[in-house]
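Write out the 3D structure for:
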Amino acid sequence: MTDPEPVDIPPAPRSAVLCSPWASPSDVPEAWRGQESTEEWQRVLLLASEILFYLSGRRFYGGGCTETAILRSRPPSAGQGAWPYHATWGDCGCWSAARLVNGWLYPPEPGAWSNHYSPMAVQLPRSPVATVTAVLQNGLPFTDFRLTRSGWLERTDGGSWSVCNDSTEVSYTFGEPPPESGVQATIELAYQLMLSMRNDARCQLPRRVQSVTRQGVSMTILDPQEFLSDGRTGLYAVDLFLAAVNPESRAQRAYVFSPDLPSTIIRP
């Protein structure tokens, strides 16, 4: 009886969390690299980066994030996916002429035959925005714009952005690399994860199971690992970084909403 042919099972799909890892294999000290390949270190560094991204309050997406956004007039409806959209683009219909339906003007807009929403400035879906690399208007390059320090994309020709008919396309880079302390924390966590995978006794990652001997009686207990509920790893150097950037162990950054802040800038 012959053995069955091995089944080539493809790897499970992954969700892209970061644009790039917080550290690269070249950042790892040579004495720590061991026999693992560059590809293995890249995988573990990405794993450590994702863990620290969440523990730091979803900060530092990494550098080199790119996206192309097409300005839309309203957010996607249920079942339409989640293409990039920002609330500053508005929420309206994009009809250009009304018509009579059973004696009623449709779409119902009294005294007008159009409903083109035309903001003078918009914000892009991802932040922080580093650079706007290209803007196309009706497929043609458009250069009369500027990116403000507060992240608004403004037209400088006195005109307004078209959010209808998929006519405005913006390509930009966004993201933020971590500080040096974040890079070193990533290397430390990745190294400890690698030691754990090697079953190396030098691994300093806290373990759940502990052996305790009291009054001649030996028992095995579970470490409650209270540091996990505090959003920490149990590694001093790593937790020092987390305490500096996310002292309250928040799940994500706080946001401020105020009626005094503009939601969009519309051409009068």
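The two ends are 82 Å apart (CA to CA).
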